[in-house]
Amino acid sequence: MAPSNFHLVLTLIMAISLSSFNGSLAARNLLQTSLPPLPTIPTLPTATLPPLPAVPNLPAATLPPLPAMPNLPATLPPFPNMPNLPAATLPPLPTNIPAIPKVALPPLAANPLPAIPSIPTAIPTTMPSFPFLSPPPSN
What we know:
Layout: H1 2-17, H2 21-32
């Protein structure tokens, strides 16, 4: 929906910007002329509506009484005791730690890394000439 609104606004702007000078003069001429008096709007008769019927009195509903709230004890009973669990026995830790084996890495490749190209420090100040951009020869 938004693109269609965008296209509508764009079309209106293009139509206004591409309108002719004569159209602008005609619009100005129409704005400067005086308008004829507008016709008076006739008054409409007021409609008389019949009175609304009265709301009948409904009998009041009789609800049964709410049950009484039970009396809660002032203190809560204590929580039950947790049973004693046997202590967990863990196996003993080893005293001698095995040695980590030595890993031999393969030798590095004989090809060196490529060199980083250098950045030129001199900035050219002359414009190169291209034959197809040069002016035509004079006779």
